[in-house]
Amino acid sequence: MRSSNPVFSRRGFSRDNGYAGFNTAPQAGYAQGNPYAQNPYANNPYAQQDLQQGAPPQAPATGRMTMDDVVMRSGLTLGTVAVGAILAWALLPISATSYGLAVGSAIIAFVLAMIQSFKRTPVPALILGYAAFEGVFLGVISEMYNSQWSGAPFQAVLGTLAVSAATLLVYKAGWIRVTARYARIGMAIAIAFVLLMAVNLLLVAFGVADNGGLRSFGPLGALVGVIAILLGAFFLTLDFKQIEDGIAYGAPKNEAWLAAFGLTMTLVWIYVEMLRLVAIFSRD
Which of the listed residues 47, 92, 263, 265 has the most CB atoms within 10 Å of its CB? Predict the structure, then answer.
């Protein structure tokens, strides 16, 4: 399955660019009439690739991604973001220089993310490098927001955790089914949103739109922020589905880094939008 979030070209779990697909589900219950009982690798794209390459199929639990792998890599990646943010907050006082460093860090993080997105396999150094520079960017802007709206970063963190927990709960309860149609509609909305924000940025840069345009600190900006956070929750459901499918179909263990990469990008997206939303509602 191909999952996406702010970097729309990010690869899904596959070594041959084949995806499990939104409409497929792992077959279970071999002893209860499962058509794959005689060949447990028949519905496993990773094992089938092993066969095509002349290698004996590996058992699903051997050298394959597990939830523990995903949790460990995600913890390391998000921890790198947190350390970068804390150091930037502590060492870079608010100034034009620190703002320039934040912009530079964001650009470097974006470049590293794009390089990883086009790689056939995950490169931990790229992913951790992205996390470190993203952390510097978040640390600087969080300090700037906190200087004007005291406590805004802490509230944004709580809001991000709340959105993530609620999305996971809804996903695990089966209230949201991540199907191909769901993904297509959501991605169409997401792409339209990003394009609209790009146009808005150009209008603001050339003085056509005042006060940030659609990204103002007024009611319209709040509405746009809510939409952006909902899109972040949508990206999370794709990430959850991708992780489930990767584990079920026996994705290689090192691809747990892709799960960490995707989750980190999505959580950063939600945090930044939550930070803006908190600031808007904190204004007099």
Answer: 265
- Residue 136 tokens read as 């510097």
Residue identified by tokens 């709206």 is 149
Neighbours of 125 (CB within 10 A): 10
Res. 191 pLDDT band, cuts 50 70 90: very high
Q: Residue length, the chain? A: 284
pLDDT of residue 83: 97
Nearest to 266 by CA among 284, 245, 239: 239
Residues 113 and 261: their CA atoms lie apart, in Å, by 9
Residue pointed to by tokens 């995806």: 19
Bridge partners of residue 64, in order along the sequence: 252
Closest CA to 231 of 283, 207, 266: 266
SS3 of the chain: the string is: CCCCCCCCCCCCCCCCCCCCCCCCCCCCCCCCCCCCCCCCCCCCHHHHHHHHCCCCCCCCCCCECCHHHHHHHHHHHHHHHHHHHHHHHHHCCCCHHHHHHHHHHHHHHHHHHHHHHCCCCCCHHHHHHHHHHHHHHHHHHHHHHHHHCCCHHHHHHHHHHHHHHHHHHHHHCCCCCCCHHHHHHHHHHHHHHHHHHHHHHHHHHCCCCCCCHHHCCCHHHHHHHHHHHHHHHHHHHHHHHHHHHHHHCCCEHHHHHHHHHHHHHHHHHHHHHHHHHHHHHHCC
